[in-house]
Design goal:
41% helix, six-stranded antiparallel beta sheet, KH_dom_type_1_sf, Ribosomal Protein S8, Chain: A, domain 1, 15 helices, 424 residues, TATA-Binding Protein, alpha+beta, globular, RNA-binding
């Protein structure tokens, strides 16, 4: 699961504020950084606007996460203070152990660059070794490990965060307005990897031709020639009537998720500032109703809308955003029998330990199928110390997170699967 830490990314870019610098604190320093008095002293001596220490909710990340929020230059100065603290408290071998930071998943391809050219350039400039760690299931951000001397690591981190600032805060401006007439054509823009050209259009243009034939919707890809920080990404423009787009968007989103290689990665829309004025008042409610995490990043006349969640609810969120933009539909929370509007809750159930591997399936295929069918998050954990179960110690904890309807569906599916496995 992703950490619940707060990220402030929508401040004015003119002030240089961008994605927070997030460090994984080596375990040897966990006790020191867990003490409030030490954090207070560090906050008083560094230049950061905010300095937060938290623990990831993802069980695969045992380290504490230190988040530094500030303008770019102050953020790097705060990093120096933290690294000095490492050296003061205990001798730490930066060359051997390295320093790990977290970056947005969609930045990875930009950081690596075509044929690895970008990451090699950063390594040569900073005299460090930089590697991107394999994606951890359930975590939106990616780990980047940097080996080298402390001063060289600072240079590498500064280069990486300058790239993130240019990429996240300064998207390429594309001036656009929505057509006010429902009878005429309108459009919606997605940000996709440049490597997606062949997949999104399809072999011989098959997918694009099928969408055009079935829904009268065109798919075109625009290059980012003016914005070098996004030279490895495209803008996918889907154009058609309102009805055609509403019908075709689920299939187009499926294809975009296939391109991203992981169906839990973010969907990103590009919206003009003029249209965002009305949309912004509805985003919280769209997020609430669909159980998605929705963030808006601004720059002058454009906004990037980032949507995170399960594939099913991401589709719902995109369609709701599209309807809002096209018709100005207001989305308000109302009392309703609709299960989607239930409050999000968490339920723990236990399952026999011997069945967990088969419930998860090879490469997680079974649990992913259960997640898609139920619409809620499903994770397995070891039992907490002192946790009593009917199975005794031979059990695992299964955590379900979602609305009540989704959780009830997930429980039914799990019980059915456990029953089948017991009969085998």
């Amino acid at each position: 699961m992703a950490s619940s830490r707060s990220r402030s990314r929508s401040r004015s870019p003119s002030k240089g504020t961008d994605f927070p610098l997030m460090l994984l604190i080596p375990q040897v320093y966990a006790s020191y950084f867990s003490k409030q008095e030490n954090m207070q002293r560090l906050r008083s001596t560094c230049t950061a606007d905010r300095l937060l220490i938290s623990r990831s909710l993802n069980e695969n990340i045992p380290e504490l996460i230190l988040s530094i929020e500030a303008e770019h230059e102050k953020k790097i100065q705060a990093l120096k203070s933290v690294l000095n603290e490492f050296l003061i408290q205990e001798e730490y071998d930066f060359k051997r152990n390295g320093l790990t930071i977290l970056i947005p998943s969609h930045i990875v391809s930009v950081l690596i660059g075509k044929g690895g050219t970008q990451i090699r350039r950063f390594q040569n400039e900073s005299h460090t070794e930089i590697s991107v760690i394999d994606k951890i299931e359930g975590m939106q951000d990616r780990q980047v490990r940097i080996h080298g001397k402390p001063k060289d690591i600072e240079i590498a981190v500064e280069n990486i965060h300058r790239l993130i600032r240019d990429r996240v805060i300064n998207p390429e401006p594309i001036k656009s307005n929505w057509d006010g007439s429902s009878k005429n054509k309108t459009f919606l823009k997605f940000i996709v990897p440049q490597s997606s050209v062949g997949i999104l259009i399809g072999k011989g243009g098959y997918f694009a031709k099928t969408i055009k034939k079935d829904y009268n919707v065109e798919i075109k890809l625009l290059k980012n020639e003016k914005c070098t920080s996004r030279e490895y990404e495209n803008i996918a423009v889907t154009t058609g009537t309102r009805e055609g787009l509403l019908e075709s968007l689920p299939k187009i989103i499926d294809k975009i998720c296939d391109i991203q290689s992981a169906r839990d990665e973010s969907i990103r829309l590009l919206i003009s500032a003029n249209c965002f004025k009305n949309l912004r008042y509805s985003l919280d409610d769209i997020s609430y109703q669909t159980s998605c995490k929705i963030k808006a990043l601004s720059e002058f006349d454009e906004h990037i809308i980032t949507i995170d969640g399960l594939l099913k609810v991401k589709k719902e969120a995109v369609l709701m955003i599209f309807r809002n933009l096209k018709e100005g539909e207001s989305v308000k929370r109302k009392s309703s029998d609709s299960p989607r509007r239930d409050n999000i809750t968490t339920v723990d159930v236990t399952v026999p330990d011997r069945m967990v591997a088969r419930l998860i399936g090879k490469k997680g295929e079974h649990v992913k199928n259960m997640i898609d069918k139920s619409g809620c998050s499903i994770t397995f954990h070891k039992l907490f110390e002192g946790y009593l179960t009917p199975e005794g110690d031979n059990a695992r904890l299964c955590t379900l997170k979602g609305n009540t309807s989704a959780i009830s569906i997930a429980v039914r599916i799990i019980l059915e699967q456990v029953s089948k496995l017991e009969d085998d």
